[in-house]
Amino acid sequence: MSCGEPHEMDCSEVLDHLYEYLDKEMPDRDCEKFKEHFDECSPCFEKYGLEQEVKKLVKRCCGHDDVPSDLRSKVMGRIDMIRAGGVTPEEPAEEDAPATGPRKHLA
To answer: Per residue in 21-52, pLDDT tens?
Structure first.
């Protein structure tokens, strides 16, 4: 997605890291760059607003459920692996891969 206007940050880069911005998981200096981009780019600002509302809705509807600690640690481990380039998001991690035993050949 691009609005067609030149910006310091490319629209696709902003949208790729939108949830990091929404979740306040980036350094303050990067947050300032995102805020500048949203001030200049109405399509990205619109997407930001939409995703912000989705987060609020999910929190309101699902925010009271307890998350099992082992699930949280698996998800965080998976995120760390993806960030380190160990696996792609579509590729199962070793611990997530189905166990395979000896294969039986059908004749």
So the answer is: 999 999 999 999 999 999 999 999 999 999 99
Regarding whether 7 and 57 lie in a shared domain, the answer is: yes
In the chain, the percentage of residues whose pLDDT exceeds 70 is 76
Do 38 and 78 reside in the same domain of the chain?
Answer: no
Distance between CA 79 and CA 71 in Å, rounded? 12
Residue whose pair of structure tokens reads 């696996």 in the numeric block: 87
Q: CA 7 to CA 63: how far, in whole Å?
A: 36
* Distance separating alpha carbons of residues 34 and 28, to the nearest angstrom: 10
Angle at 49 (CA atoms; ends 5, 88), nearest 5 degrees: 80
Write down how long the chain is. 107
Where in the sequence is the domain holding 25, given as residue range(s)? 1-62
pTM of the entire structure? 0.55
